[in-house]
Amino acid sequence: MEKTLEKIKLLCAQALAQDKLITFLTGAGISAESGVPTYRGTDGIWVEGSRNYKPEEFATLRFFKENPAEVWKFVLYRKVSFRDLQPNAGHLALASTEVLLPNNFRLITQNIDRLHIKAGNTQAKVLEIHGNMETVRCSEECSMDVYPFPLDIGTAPYDAKMITQQWEQLKCPDCGSLMRPNVLMFDEYYNERLYKQESAIEAALNTGVLFVVGTSGATNLPHHIASTATYRGSSLVDINIADSAFTDMATSEPDKLVLRGTSGDILPQIKQLIQALV
User: Which residues are annotated as active site (predicted)?
Assistant: First the structure.
């Protein structure tokens, strides 16, 4: 580990000397250490009555249009489960790293829990490529507006019934249609306005070292970000507890590195080595 960290330190020093970005791409693994259920595991399956809905089935716009109550019940259940969770050592290390690198830091996250913001990262440096659970928008896209999550919903203890008052609060203020969570669904496409696709690719093009943290690369854009960064000469550091779609990229050249362990253990060490450079 010590030898690997020394090599990472050298690569970061080279990137900063060239005025390149140090970029972190994070996924569910970093938030799992705070107690956030992983979306693709068995804890991500939604049970309604006697039926189990898998994420690939109910987390689609098509399913939302046909069964809005089931989707909103799951969203409220999940939002309440996020309510009291706190950032862990990995989140806090990234917040400190942003302070160390005010002009050379980017954080691209697949997570919708906003724990990075809660830890202290700034919205200007965080690209939430799957949206977040703190905002909603019109399901009919009557306008370009994104609204804060209704204050009175998703804060009380979870109740499986959608009461009249909740439905009223979930109406679009412009056209009266039902609001939807401002998150990317499985049958939707990335874009810049909502999911910062172009900003994420631009960051990848200007990255000197890309740290991939707690993500398997199962979705399109994260894999494209890593491919773009490495194609442009970025070093890639894979920080995961197991091999993933990024592992081959991380080991294909001498400058690609793999660190196995939890982000809560490894990211504070990365922060320390960057601190020694600035």
Answer: 130 (proton acceptor)
Is 172 among the annotated ligand-binding positions?
yes
Cα(195)–Cα(251) distance, integer angstroms: 29
142 is in an annotated binding site: yes
For the beta carbon of residue 26, count every other beta carbon within 10 angstroms.
Answer: 27
**Other beta carbons within 10 Å of 57:** 13
Tens digits of pLDDT across the chain (278 residues): 888 899 999 999 999 999 999 999 999 999 999 988 765 554 555 555 445 667 777 789 999 999 898 888 888 878 887 888 999 999 999 999 999 999 999 999 999 999 999 999 999 999 999 999 999 999 999 999 999 988 666 665 556 677 777 788 899 999 999 999 999 998 999 999 999 999 999 999 999 999 999 988 777 899 999 999 999 999 999 999 888 888 877 776 676 789 999 999 999 999 999 999 99
Residue 61 CA to its chain's centroid (Å): 20
Helix (H, G, I), strand (E, B) or coil at 173: coil
- Both tokens of 124, joined, read 């200007």
Please say whether the dihedral angle defined by the alpha carbons of residues 187, 114, 244 and 233, taken in this order, is positive or negative.
Answer: positive
pTM check: above 0.90: yes
**Element (H or E) spanning 91, and its range?**
helix 89-100
Beta strand pairing call for 147-148 and 179-183: unpaired
Q: Which of 91, 116, 130, 223 is catalytic?
A: 130
Catalytic status, residue 91? no
